[in-house]
């Protein structure tokens, strides 16, 4: 690999699983990092949110690598929601990668390879490149009629000016096409990348601000550039190490980034890339941007994964690792040892622990309000009171799930507003964990592989932190 490919990267939008957390738009903190009682879709859980905000701040200030944070708390107390909030408030340029512990065991690659890829998705590289651009206000675009009808190559002329000079450029077919695609017309201020021929519209010149015909509501006005038409400009790309890995691994190719079908990446490829990136850093061409790697359900990891994490965090490019679990004292996967959260003590020792607390009825009510809005469900006051009560007695997540179901029940009876009757209907229809467990206890002899001796059993998920 003589040179590392970079051209094809950029703007691969992060793939996030939305749905349950679609209402979360940030952490809802003020400028002093205090949690607002309800903001950006976030309600309550103020100290955990504040702590998460401090972590985000650390990440944004950059340069801090290899720290790890644990979000610990009962199911449905907003651990995943807080991680989503961190992702949203961290900014576009900082990478955020997310992984659920169980995914490691279902991918078609080794656990450590999957973890390695996740780590490298959370490490950004900011690369500076100098390019030559032509930047000016379009005076005129003139396209010649082909002498012979249907002749393949069009020609034309483009006149550009700055406040100090004006130049006429000859146009080839490719440029004409590009100008057409961007709908460039006189009065636009454009930049042309000399190496790639890429045209960027910067806006409309202020001198045309009275030209009502040629603008939409979003028209942006800019000054006519001054000085020379040709300039050297510094452009900055931000990519992740994983993106560089995939693009440069011959068996995969660039498209693998979209299909997610990246397979295992050879160690030599990574070594070469690390060497190259180190060179760029020394030359001042590149900077490392440590991002955030979030591993949900971390108790699903086994002892091998934990030792991988221990080692990976020592790397000087390591991202900030955030893990979450709802387990109390339980055995570490792959061993017979028990430990807090199912996490080995040596790894636990690295972690800053943020704990999430059960919600108050007011918080539950507010979160349900937000979810109703998010799902476009209208609900009567009585119904909301009932649903809040259900949320207190069962779980927040169960109550949230009933919103959609009760809206369907309401629709079925041709109602417009969800009433108490719809809520109680779906409450009977869908069991929560408590009732389901009770039912299983009563009828277990009729199920296959029943292991619980009569009269015993956990109320929640096995080992989950039940207060
Ligand atoms: N503080 C909060 N503000 C708004 N919505 C929340 C909050 N906490 C949890 N939720 C929502 O409640 C549901 C359950 O929370 P979740 O984050 O999945 O819990 P956990 O990961 O701790 O089990 C999700 O839909 C989540 O978006
Ligand atoms: Mg969760």
Describe this structure in words.
This protein is α/β, with parallel strands linked by helices. It has three domains: 38-122 and 291-355, 3-Layer(aba) Sandwich (Rossmann fold), CATH 3.40.50; 124-283, RuvBL1 DNA/RNA binding domain (OB fold (Dihydrolipoamide Acetyltransferase, E2P)), CATH 2.40.50.360; 361-466, Helicase, Ruva Protein, domain 3 (Orthogonal Bundle), CATH 1.10.8. Helix content is 33%, strand content 21%. It is built from 14 helices and 17 strands. The strands form four sheets. Strands 5, 6, 7, 8, 9, 10, 11 and 12 form an eight-stranded mixed sheet that branches. Strands 4-13-14-3-17 form a five-stranded parallel sheet, sandwiched between helices. Helix 3 packs parallel to helix 8 (303-312) and helix 10 packs across helix 12 (396-412). The protein is globular, with a radius of gyration of 29 Å. Mean pLDDT is 85; it is low at 7-18 and 456-467. Adenosine-5'-diphosphate binds at residues 20-21, 24, 41-45, 73, 75-81, 326, 367, 396-397, 400.
